[in-house]
């Protein structure tokens, strides 16, 4: 199995048994187009609504390969070869709350 990091940051994974791996950025940076529409202002402050558009810059699917992408790219695509770092409650953080490592990835299951 091959994992390619398509984010601009190293992704460190640390498991409870001590196993650790860092996935360096590959230089591949997929992006998501966003559509913006003006919304009603709040106390004179301009507001917009946004919706996710098309993903660009993703590599072609490859056998036995997963691509680490941002959550935004993950949510905008339905590809089953994309994974995103789970930065929720399982993430390992320092005293300031910065993520040091993740303990798992988010991927699409059979039903989604």
Overview of this protein structure:
This protein has 112 residues and is mainly beta. The protein has one domain. The protein is 5% helix and 46% strand. The protein contains 1 helix and 10 strands, in the order E-E-E-E-E-E-H-E-E-E-E. The strands form 4 sheets. It has a 4-stranded mixed beta sheet with strand order 1-6-7-10, with no helix packed on it. The two termini are 22 Å apart. 12% of the residues are buried. The mean pLDDT is 95.
User: What is the succession of H and E elements?
Assistant: EEEEEEHEEEE
Shape: globular
Low-confidence stretches: none
How much is the radius of gyration in Å? 17 Å
Briefly summarize what is shown.
Helix content is 5%, strand content 46%. The chain is mainly beta and 112 residues long. Strands 1-6-7-10 form a four-stranded mixed β-sheet, with no helix packed on it. Strands 2-3 form a two-stranded antiparallel sheet.
């Amino acid at each position: 199995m091959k994992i390619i990091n398509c984010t601009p940051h190293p992704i460190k994974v640390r498991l409870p048994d001590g196993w650790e791996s860092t996935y360096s950025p590959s230089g591949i940076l997929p992006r998501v187009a966003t559509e913006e529409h003006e919304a009603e202002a709040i106390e004179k402050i301009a507001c917009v609504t946004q919706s996710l558009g098309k993903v660009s810059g993703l590599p072609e699917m490859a056998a036995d390969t997963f691509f680490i992408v941002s959550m935004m790219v993950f949510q905008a695509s339905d590809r089953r070869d994309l994974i995103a770092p789970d930065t929720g409650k399982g993430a390992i953080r320092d005293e300031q709350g910065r993520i040091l490592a993740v303990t798992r990835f988010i991927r699409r299951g059979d039903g989604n």
